[in-house]
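During the practical work, I selected for study one protein's amino acid sequence and its backbone structure tokens, as given directly below:
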Amino acid sequence: MGYYDQNDENQNKRKRGYTGYFLAGLGGVIIGALLILPGSGLLNNDDNEITTGKSTENEPTEQSQQNLTLDVTSAVTNAVDKASDAVVGITNIQETNFWSQGTNAEDSSAEAGTGSGVVYKKDGGKAYIVTNNHVIEGANELEVTLSDGTKLPAELQGSDPWTDLAVIVVNGDKIKTIAEFGKSGKLKPGEPVIAIGNPLGLQFSGSITQGIISGLERTIEVDINEDGQVDWNAEVIQTDAAINPGNSGGALVNMSGQVIGINSMKIAENAVEGIGLSIPIDSVIPIINDIEEFGEVKRAFLGVNLASVEEISQYHQQNTLKLPRKVTFGVAITGVQSNSPASKAGLKEFDVIVGMDNEKIHDVVELRKYLYNEKKIGDKVKIIYYRDGKKETTEVKLSSSEI
């Protein structure tokens, strides 16, 4: 007869419970291990990736290699590539006091200054370079330094102090790049430009600065003979591209690499910043053409010495020139050259010119500007003037200064 032992049943239940717990735990361990092992691999892979990243921080990546060897090409670099080798350095060598230099004859010459120039033409084995008159002024010898450092002796072809331009000539064998001239009359305010030259001397040769056209048809008063009186109004381009001593005679270039101005000066005052001035290339071309052909600029010649009425005291305006009180402008003739166009037309000392053709003439600068810019050798000009208080007219046939 069978019987049911409550203790055995409880023991069996406990055994089944232990087995279940064991199997469940074992399954959990196995599942966990399966999950953990791949996870460990992922963690290891992640660690490897992180480690690899750290180990390559100092090694150039593909992107950084591209940046390090980046070949930047732009309108600016293209313009510089086209024009820069045509810009040269110019050294002005002058004789000095022999006794202060010792007994060596070679020591009797010294560099008086440096500037820049632009090679614009090769012809007959020679290369022609345009620069500023003040760069070559007073030189006993001139030396040109090319962009590759080659130095060449240069000769002065001619110069023009009125426009501050000069042409020098070197042997053309070593010259490889010729500048291309653009049209300064086509420039617009705000247009980007580049200045190329040798600021502060040959140490900084071939320096490039960039700016814009700040203004067109600016006029700057010029005292040619340094007597404190304005002799000429130079027409210039204004730019904020940096132009420093030594840049004089260098190129102002547009984005096509064409020379549109010859850098001449900057306004150097404590309260002024970024005002550089360049001679428009449209004005440069006829000047250098004359210098090439004649060694100077051929201008219409009147043959008189002049003084602006505004610079003459009121006493002499009334008593010497005998001007009507209402006439407070004009140009007084202080001397007439013999056999000159003015002399042949009957003009005399103390005559006061107030008009040429249909243009009113206020001062000496206006008279020169009209004569030099509007008239040519052989032209006729009607002169309106006062003599002894009376207005008169005469006609003058202009000649060259050689006649």
The longest helix spans residues 6-55. The chain is about 25% helix and 35% strand. The longest strand covers residues 207-222. The CA atoms of residues 79 and 348 lie 55 Å apart.
